[in-house]
Amino acid sequence: MDPAVLMESVKKFNEAVSSGYDPEFGRTVFNTHALIEDFGPYYACPRSPAVHHTMGGVRVDVDTHVLREDGSWIAGLYAAGEVTGGFHGTNRLGGNAIADCLANGRIAGLTVVEDNK
């Protein structure tokens, strides 16, 4: 990225935070501590939209066993994180899948150990 373009973007963002309005995107809600400092180093990397979470997935029980349609679990098959369904109902807040991945990953690991004693 051209450093001058990045610095101009930082300047516009800081002005929007200070004024409480972003004329480029119409944003009016800002973290009051969101100002970007005038010193670097700054790093940027390309990003593009992608589907990373769906509101469905394999059914699991509270121990992360993957369930068949009849509710019985498939021996030796466990699932955690964004591949599982049902934790968020019909919607979710961004970032919530991180908790799913961490908590259910730990539960799955403990369940595997317990199931294989």
What would you say this structure looks like, in words?
- The chain has 117 residues and is mainly alpha-helical.
- The chain has 2 helices and 2 strands; from the N terminus they run H-E-E-H.
- It has helices at residues 3-19, 96-115; strands at 65-67, 73-78.
- The protein has a two-stranded antiparallel sheet with strand order 1-2.
- The protein is elongated and about 60 Å long.
What are the defining features of this structure?
117 residues; mainly alpha; two-stranded antiparallel sheet
Shape: elongated
User: Mean pLDDT score, rounded?
Assistant: 83
Strand line-up across the major sheet: 1-2
DSSP strand content: 5-15%
Tell me how many strands there are.
Answer: 2
Largest sheet: 2 strands, antiparallel
Q: Helix and strand succession?
A: HEEH
Amino- and carboxy-terminal Cα gap: 54 Å
Helix content: 25-40%
Gist of the model:
The protein is 32% helix and 8% strand. The protein has 117 residues and is mainly α. A hairpin with a 5-residue loop joins strand 1 and strand 2 (73-78).
Chart the SSEs and their pairings.
Blueprint: H1 3-19, E1 65-67, E2 73-78, H2 96-115
